[in-house]
Amino acid sequence: MTTRRTFGQIALAVIYLLLALNSWAQVALVPLGRSGDPPILTGLQFLIGVASVAVAWGSWGGTRWAPLAAIIHGLITGGMLASLGAILGLPADERSRLYVGAVAVILWDFAFAWYLNRIAKRGTAP
């Protein structure tokens, strides 16, 4: 039986796979000595990579848990962005931009979760 994926499912799968590659590339730079990131930041990047793969897989498959994976991704990524100021010791005036970015990421992930929820309810993919 052939299943039909929507353009949105395919696009989200590709986007989240690229996000996972970006996160894990930053993690891989640490043991190579090419990054001076604090361990907490490396751990958060690893978790973001795991969450990104989960969203990509769930999006591709139209699974019921894909929206939850998108929400988890948004919360981890948004939390990391919001805490970057403290982790990296940035001045207070630069931290406000990080908060705006954190809120934007969370809102986008919630929007994607809503879309993935619609797809899962419709059953347009396996």
Indicate the percent of residues in helices.
over 70%
Determine Rg (CA atoms, Å). Answer: 16 Å
Low-confidence blocks of residues = none
Shape assignment: globular
End-to-end Cα distance, whole Å, is: 10 Å
The tally of strands reads 0
Tally of separate domains: 1
What's the helix count?
Answer: 4
Run of helices and strands: HHHH
Mean pLDDT: 91
Q: What class, by secondary structure content?
A: mainly alpha
Largest sheet: none
**What percent of residues are in strands?**
under 5%
Question: What's the SSE blueprint?
Answer:
Blueprint: H1 7-29, H2 39-61, H3 66-88, H4 92-122
Helix pairs in contact: 1-2, 2-3, 3-4
List the defining traits of the structure above.
single chain, mainly alpha
Structure overview:
The chain has 126 residues and is an all-alpha fold. It has one domain (7-122). The chain is built from four helices and no strands. It has helices at 7-29, 39-61, 66-88, 92-122. The longest helix has 31 residues, at 92-122. It starts with 6 loop residues before the first helix and ends with a helix. The model has no long low-confidence stretch (mean pLDDT 91).
Q: How would you concisely characterize the structure shown here?
A:
The protein has helices spanning 7-29, 39-61, 66-88, 92-122. It is built from 4 helices and no strands. The model has no long low-confidence stretch (mean pLDDT 91).
